[in-house]
Amino acid sequence: MIDLSQAIWRKASASTGSNGACVEVATNLPPGSAAMRDSTRPSGATHMATSAALRVLLDDVRAGAYDV
User: Fold this and answer.
1) What is the rounded CA–CA span in Å between residue 14 and residue 30?
2) Among 2, 7, 10, 67, which residue has the fewest nearby CB atoms (within 10 Å)?
3) pTM of the predicted structure, to 2 decimals
4) Which of 39, 36, 35, 44 is nearest to 20 (CA)?
5) Which residues pair with 9 in a beta bridge?
6) Measuring CA to CA, how many Å separate 35 from each of 10, 40, 52, 54?
7) Strands (E), the chain
8) Minimal CA–CA distance to 29: which of 12, 17, 46, 13?
9) Which residue in 26, 31, 33 sits closest to 5, CA to CA?
10) Residue range 23-35, pLDDT digits in tens
């Protein structure tokens, strides 16, 4: 299990609106690891992924793959 107590969280640049969709990402973790969480609930669940998987997710989001 990765210790997140020293994680440095960055709020996503697109998480500035009033829609409540606020995402934070921490990448200062062991090599190849990344973490994501809801910035409005920082003590809630944290989703772990590889850095590569996070890059694929972000590329898909930018391309509109999950637009509804």
Assistant:
1) 26
2) 67
3) 0.74
4) 39
5) 26
6) 10, 15, 12, 9
7) 9-11, 23-26, 33-38, 46-50
8) 46
9) 26
10) 899 989 999 999 9
